[in-house]
Amino acid sequence: MTRLYFVLCLVCSCSVSGQSPTFGLMGLKLNLKPQFNGSKQLDEILWKHNGNKVVEFDGIKQQEFGLFENRVTLDWISAELSITGLTLDDSGVYEVEVYTDKVLKRQTLNLEVLEKLAKPNIKCETSNDGEEATLTCSVESRQPQYLMYEWIYHGTGQRLTVPLSDKSKEYTCIVRNRLSNATATVTAKTCYPDEGVSALTISLIVAVVLLGAVIAVVVGIIYCKRYNKGLKNETTHNEEGTSLLHRTLTVPSDQRLGGELLYNNNTTSDLERSDTQNIELCKHEILVRD
Ligand SMILES: *[C@@H]1O[C@H](CO)[C@@H](O)[C@H](O)[C@H]1NC(C)=O
Ligand SMILES: *[C@@H]1O[C@H](CO)[C@@H](O)[C@H](O)[C@H]1NC(C)=O
C-alpha cells in the first residue's frame, strides 16, 4: 500500500517537473539541451534557475546574471546552455523560453549536481563470541539519498558480516552515486586495534630497556676510566710520599726488610679497606695496562 503510494507520488512529481533530472558532477561542466528543433538563430532566449535569470539573449547580445556570470555559454540556435564549475547550489529547476517566428516556446529541465565521493570509512565490530565481525562502510556526504554501498564480491549494503578466522582476507567497500565512486579496503586485522597497540607497546618497552642498558654500560665505562685516572694520580702521589717516608724511616732504623713489609702492608690495606669489588676490578685493569 505504502509502496504503491510512493510510486504514484514519484510519477506525479516527475510529470510536474516535466522531466527526470539531468545529473552533473560537482566541479565539472554540464550541458542542458532543450528540444526545439531549431535550424536558425532564435529571436530571443531566456534561461531561469529556480525563477532567477541565468542568461538572456535579445537577438543581438547576451547577458549573464548572478552566480552564473562567466560560467555559462549559450547556443543561439539550439538554446543549449552549458554551465562550468558546477556547485551543489546549481541544482534545481531550469526553465528556458525561446521566442522565434512570433511563437513563444517553453521547456523545463531538472538538474541535480552530485558531489564527488570521498574515500569511505570502514568500522569493525566483533561479535560477542569473537568469531565474527560486522564491517560498516560509510562516507561523509551531503547527499546520502544518492549513495549506494556495495561490498565487492559480497553484494550490496552498508554492512557486511565476516568470519574472523582468516585475519588477512581483504574486504573492499565501494560507495557510489550516479557519477562517482570511491573504495576502501580492510582486513579483519582492523578488528583488533588492541593487538596492534600492545605490540607497539612491547617494542617500545624493549627499545627503552635496551637503551637503558647501553647507557648503563657507557656510564660504567666512563666512571671506571675516571676512577682509574684518579687512582693512578693518587697512587703515584702516595708512592712518592711513602717512598720518601720509607727512606727517612728505614735509613736510621736500618731495617730494610721490615720497612718494606710495612710499606707493602700499608699500601694494600689502605686500598682494600676503602674500596669495593668493582674498584678492585678497575685496579686490576690499571695494573694490567701498566
Ligand atoms: C522535433 O522534431 C521531431 C522529429 O524530428 C519531432 O518528433 C518533435 O515533435 C519536434 N519537437 C518540437 C518541440 O518541435
Ligand atoms: C568508478 O568511477 C570511475 C570513474 O570515475 C569509473 O571509471 C569506474 O568504472 C567506476 N567503478 C565502478 C566499480 O563503478
From TrEMBL:
The residues forming the signal peptide are 1-18
Record keywords, A-Z: Glycoprotein, Membrane, Signal, Transmembrane, Transmembrane helix
Q: Does the entry feature the keyword Signal, yes or no?
A: yes
Q: Where in the cell is it found?
A: Membrane
Q: Residues in domain Ig-like?
A: 120-187
Annotated membrane-spanning segments are 199-223
What InterPro entries does UniProt report for this protein, alphabetically? CD2/SLAM_rcpt, Ig-like_dom, Ig-like_dom_sf, Ig-like_fold, Ig_sub
Q: What is the protein named? A: Lymphocyte function-associated antigen 3-like
Q: Which organism is it from?
A: Betta splendens (Siamese fighting fish)
- In the UniProt record, the gene name given for this protein reads LOC129603481
